[in-house]
Design brief:
The protein is α+β, with helices and mostly antiparallel strands. The chain contains 15 helices and 11 strands. The two termini are 61 Å apart. 19% of the residues are buried.
Amino acid sequence: MRATSETLENNRIKLIVEIDDAEMDEALDAAAKTLAKQVSVKGFRKGKVPKNVLVAHIGGLEVLRSEAIRESMPDFYARAVADTLIDPIGQPDINVTGGETEGPLTFEAEVEVRPDVLISGQRTLRVTIPSPNVLDSEVEAQIDRFRETDAILKDVERPIVTGDLVTMDVHVQQIATDVEPLEMSDFMYTVGSGSIAEGVDELILGLKAGEELKLNSSMGGGVVATYTLQLKQVKERELPELTDEWVEENTDWTTVDEMRDKIVAQMRRMKVVEAQMSQRDAMLIALGELVSEDLVPETLVDAETNERLHDLGHRLSEQQLNLESFLQVTNQTPDQLLATLREDAVRGVRIDLAMRALVKAEGLEPSQEEIDEELETTAESMGVDAEVLRKNLHDTGRVTTFNAEVAKMKASRWLNENVTFIDPNGIEIDKGLLREDQSEELDA
């Protein structure tokens, strides 16, 4: 096979391919074997028909050649893709230009390829992740949760503040519906929990027992209701004094200092793990945003959306669910689900294009030694010989895809070393914390 490529407009490539006589002979033999198993010739068992008899039976050598070209064209195209190292993202338009009846087979294939994009700003990326640092206020809040289990409720006459327990009568009337009003008497509500309706926690602050709160708020699904809350009683939680005696009696620790130290250690481990787990996704999303959405090919988005929809269907099938049930449980329409999947697909394609652009911008193309090493690792994990995998990648036209994945692994490592991680307040995070192994501590 001889294959060359020619660059066209709009991210399209033309392959010019010639298949020599020896390769065509192999294709003819393969087609003959396939046909021999399908056709019935009197006096011969299926699969045992001699080639010359088969050719005569199906109408001549031209018919066999036509079938051989049809059967082998996907393989010819895949090998041409591998030989020219192009990166197609769509289905090719193939046109046979010669050799349909005899001689070397020639064809051209036009196909859309992945665009090369340029990025800038990768060296100054600031990526926001959860802070691995434990604040004193967080420690005190955790200690208070322990104290709340032994708290005493005390009536108060002052204005309501967050954390108070309010006893109320609740009346909910849906607007523009025939649904009967919902009535709840002596409902106990913790201010700040957000369990009644949006807006309640903000408006109830400063009110007192004996007053009324009335507001309109969404119930979801496009339904709006009027909430009327008659505030009857306000209680606050009076926490026990934090002493060594109380700690020893009510917790697994013996002193206040030990309790605080252990809580700090536990929270620190959990926050470091949370930060570590969010690193990769956060930095990839940040990198992907360096690629304009206008540069994302619809072909890639459509393919990624379909793949995500297929994966969702597979996961639901494993749980013995169907898509209709999933839509009902999640309160979505098919169009809303498709829009969500498509939005995720666009983000995924932008990340992929940005990673490939990062490889070129920072000179991270893998060496042949690095590719071979990853190929051997992959083959071992699959339980196949490395040379078998190498041939399979070539014959299926996935050499470029595999090489790109190796390059993106290098890009991911570069990104992790070179971006600046900050917490939600914009404070830079010490990368030393993000490299700490917390597995043993968490298992302890």
